[in-house]
Amino acid sequence: MKAAHLAAQRAPDARLLVVDARGALAHARRSRLADFLKPGDLLVANDAATMPASLAGAHLPTGAAIEVRLAGRRSLAVDDVREFTAVVFGDGDWHTPTEHRALPPELRPGDVLALGPLRARILRLQGHPRLVSLHFEGDADTVWAGIAQHGKPIQYAHVPQPLALWDVWTRVAALPVAFEPPSAGFVLDWALLSALKARGVGFATLTHAAGISSTGDDALDARLPLDEPYDIPPATVHAIAQAKRSSHRVIALGTTVARALEHAASLGQLRAGAGVADQRIGPQTRLRVVDAIVSGTHEPGTSHYELLRAFAPDDVLRRASDELERAGYLTHEFGDTVLIEAHVAKAVRPGSPNTGQCEVCRADAGPALACSTP
After folding, report:
1. Which residue of 8, 86, 207, 372 has the fewest C-beta atoms within 10 A of its own C-beta?
2. What 8-state DSSP symbol labels residue 344?
């Protein structure tokens, strides 16, 4: 699939591929997402704002230029910003794809990094020459001010112009705790929220520190996603309980929402409050809360795609991937969207196709595709 430029982020003609619970596929305009939800359903979004998590600077022991990408925290507490997990790149900038970025100089515990007005000391390496634990000097106000003054949003080589901070914020952005945008939330606008309300679909939020989606290093990417803190408000837990009692669906707007809700429910009853999602969701995961997911288009082998395997069998996801490729859907942070319902097995009588209709052309089709209209 082709990577999307920023213009596709809120494009009126952005597209949606719907994968229903039987494995049938249908194309639609993304602006029509509400049409595929049912009265009484609940859509849950991540309201995290994206912080300027890219910090250029120098490795003081060698004087070498580096880029630090903040990638993890222990909690969402406003005053807990002195210690981060970070990925360190060598000289170069965002114009170079991450898979071609140089390694940093050899990093050792105790090394000090100069990052604009900030100083950070390496506490430890985390089993990889790029991945470190950092401790920032100064109090929380000093660290926040330095990040705000010197940091930039993590940039992408496939986007031709530098991203401004507002480019990576969704319409519901609140606390700045995400390291990269919870990009499924780019689907949200006031028209969609109005359509959800008119259709009787509920809307709720949680806050999850969305992490780095890719580092360009295969060994490091295999460790993604990193542990990510979250906080679920009591009102959201109440809305979920109400939907479940009424046999309605909970739809996660993004992989971060699915990860937070499933982690919070992993020890039993879903509870409000803070936690750290440290689990992997994949084909062996039994989903306890989420019944469907709205996500970006993800390529096989990525951590986000692995999470989607909890919702649909591999053969269904392969057909969906082939259809996304055939129809020219756009991928990455600012790309098009998929809606995947949790799979329900169905016994089909021989010679009895599972037909459906496309939202765009209303054409009947067989079990694999409700329509092939891009």
Report:
1. 372
2. -
Between CA 44 and CA 290 the distance in angstroms is 10
Amino acid 334: pLDDT: 86
Q: What is the pLDDT of residue 219?
A: 93
Higher-confidence position of 373 and 236: 236
Cα–Cα distance list, 261 to 7, 187, 240, 254 (Å)? 31, 20, 10, 11
CB 316 within 8 A of CB 327: no
- d(Cα 192, Cα 32) in Å, to the nearest integer? 8
In this model, does residue 2 exceed pLDDT 70?
Answer: no
CA angle 43, 45, 51 (to 5 degrees): 170
Helix (H, G, I), strand (E, B) or coil at 43: strand
Nearest 5 degrees, angle CA 158-CA 165-CA 143? 120
* Contact present, 52 and 152 (Cβ < 8 Å): yes
Strand partners of residue 230: 208, 275
Cβ atoms of 322 and 240 within 8 Å: the answer is no
Q: Helices marked H in the chain — which ranges? A: 140-150, 190-199, 218-221, 234-245, 255-264, 303-308, 314-326
Set out the domains of the chain in order of their start, with CATH numbers: 2-49+163-365 (3.40.1780.10), 54-150 (2.40.10)
E strand residue ranges, 39-117: 42-46, 49-50, 54-59, 64-72, 83-89, 112-115
| 325 neighbors 363 (Cβ within 8 angstroms) | no
- Per the structure block, which two tokens stand in for 25? 């596929």
Tens digits of residue pLDDT in 71-91: 999 999 999 999 999 999 999
What's this model's pTM, rounded to 2 decimal places? 0.90
> How far apart are alpha carbons 168 and 252 in whole angstroms?
19
Distance CA 320, CA 318 (A): 5
Distance separating alpha carbons of residues 52 and 93, to the nearest angstrom:
15
Q: Report strand pairing: 2-3 vs 330-331.
A: parallel
Q: What is the DSSP letter of 157?
A: T
Contact in structure between 27 and 39 (CB atoms under 8 Å):
no
For 119, residues 6+ apart whose C-beta sits below 8 A from its C-beta are 112, 113, 136, 137, 138
- Structure tokens that stand for 137 in this block: 């000097």
232 neighbors 206 (Cβ within 8 angstroms): yes
